[in-house]
């Protein structure tokens, strides 16, 4: 809890609101994939995605909305999600997990979020990033 944000991140919709709601999350996701396109250490994870990132962007946006306590947009459009199952066909180890988190860290730097929320969110995203590992 901080003076800037008197609500606890991770409870109710505090994280969703701290991220700027749907518009803020959409910007984060777009910045994330833009970083993935250019960050050399992310080449391997970029190659795991389709050439056209439209659906990937939509899925991550919808997932993050619900995961951060907002509307469950992923479920509405794509149904229930199992992070390990969705990524089971990919060769994801610690290097790929770390590359994904590096992209997210750079994208977070571009957001107008409170500093403590950026730290909180990057740490929290380590959990689903770890669950994506297949090796």
Tell me what the structure shows:
With 135 residues, the chain is an all-alpha fold. The chain has a single domain (14-131), classed as Orthogonal Bundle (Globin-like). Helix content is 64%, strand content 0%. It contains 8 helices and no strands. It has helices at 14-18, 21-38, 43-47, 54-67, 73-78, 83-87, 94-109, 115-131. The longest helix has 18 residues, at 21-38.
Features of this protein?
single chain, 135 residues, mainly alpha, Globin-like
- The average pLDDT is 95
Q: Helix count?
A: 8
CATH topology type: Globin-like
Largest sheet: none
Helix content: 55-70%
Strand content: under 5%
| Assembly status | single chain
Cα(first) to Cα(last) distance is 36 Å
Structural class: mainly alpha
Give the CATH superfamily: Globins
Gyration radius over CA? 14 Å
Q: Could you provide a short overview of the structure?
A:
The chain is an all-alpha fold and 135 residues long. The protein has helices at residues 14-18, 21-38, 43-47, 54-67, 73-78, 83-87, 94-109, 115-131.
């Amino acid at each position: 809890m901080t003076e800037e944000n008197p609500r606890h991140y991770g409870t109710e919709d505090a994280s969703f609101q701290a991220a700027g709601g749907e518009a803020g999350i959409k910007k984060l996701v777009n910045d994330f994939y833009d970083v993935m396109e250019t960050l050399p250490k992310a080449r391997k994870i970029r190659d795991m995605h389709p050439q056209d990132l439209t659906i990937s962007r939509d899925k991550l946006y919808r997932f993050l909305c619900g995961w951060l306590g907002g509307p469950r947009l992923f479920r509405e459009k794509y149904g229930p999600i199992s992070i390990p199952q969705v990524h089971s066909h990919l060769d994801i180890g610690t290097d790929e997990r770390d590359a994904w988190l590096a992209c997210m860290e750079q994208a977070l730097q571009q957001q107008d979020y409170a500093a403590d929320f950026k730290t909180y969110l990057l740490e929290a995203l380590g959990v689903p990033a770890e669950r994506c590992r297949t090796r």
